[in-house]
Amino acid sequence: MPAAVLSTPAELLTKVPVATLMKQGDLRLAGDRLSFITHSGEVVLDAPVDEIHSVVPAATGIHVWHNTRCLRFAFKANRALAATWVATLTPLMGTPPEGLRVPAPWPRWMWMLAVVGGTAVLVMLVIALTKINN
To answer: 6-103 — its CATH code?
Structure first.
């Protein structure tokens, strides 16, 4: 049973990184369990740490894989906090299910490119709609 206890305020990110869709709560490692409970009391993750099979740092936090589900957590603190979580969880992890491919998270430049590209598309859409209505 791991002796590590680590608890951090975190945001659970959805597939679409929009602030209104994020869930705020606490990511906690205590005993042999990793959990994420939202401030409203919803238990999103409560699993034995050996069922966690992949943990990697991401632009603003970490990605944690539990079975086939990837949970993306963002921290408001600095990147050192993500490194602490990765260093703490890595020796405690189990192995991924057979045949499961764990993709790497997007690098920061790719997120920035997606934001700039999405913004450009929205601007062009607004311009086109303005011209149609005039």
So the answer is: 2.30.29.30
Q: What does residue 34 show for φ and ψ, rounded to 5 degrees?
A: -110, 130
Q: Report CA Rg, the chain.
A: 18
Which residues, in sequence order, are CB contacts of 6 under 8 Å at separation 6+?
Answer: 28, 29, 84, 85, 88
pLDDT by residue for the chain (134 residues), tens digit each? 445 688 999 999 877 666 667 899 999 999 889 999 999 999 999 999 988 888 888 877 888 988 888 898 988 866 788 888 888 888 887 776 677 666 666 666 776 787 788 888 888 888 888 888 77
- Residue ranges covered by each domain of the chain: 6-103, 105-134
Q: Which residues touch 7 (CB under 8 Å, ≥6 apart)?
A: 26, 27, 28, 29, 30
Query: Which amino acid makes up residue 107?
Result: P
- 93 with 65: CB under 8 angstroms? no
CB distance 25 to 12 below 8 Å: yes
Residue that the structure tokens 């703490």 belong to = 88
What are the structure tokens assigned to 95, written together? 């192995």
Verdict on whether the full-model pTM lies above 0.70: no
